[in-house]
Amino acid sequence: MFGITRCITRGASRQQLSSKRGRNHYKGTGSGAMGRHTKRGGYFIEWEKVRSFVVPDLTAFKLLPYVSRSTQKTTGAFTAQDYFRKNETTVVPEKIAS
What we know:
Elements (H helix, E strand, L loop, with lengths): L1 H10 L23 E3 L5 E3 L34 H7 L7 H4 L1
């Protein structure tokens, strides 16, 4: 009886499987292979599998990726009422306004 319970508890680990747990476990990135291995140990890239990212034309794009140093520092917590006070054209629901 004790041998059976010992075996059950040994294999009943319910922890997250990571590279620190599990022998030779490699999670990977899920990206898939872009080619295949050859007989002589090389790697052949199949160009149909290579990822290509299509980026739109950003020449007329007006937003910048960084925040300017001249931005004003906020004081206190920012609430929903402050947001609607800034945008005067927005209709304020009664639950937020009260």
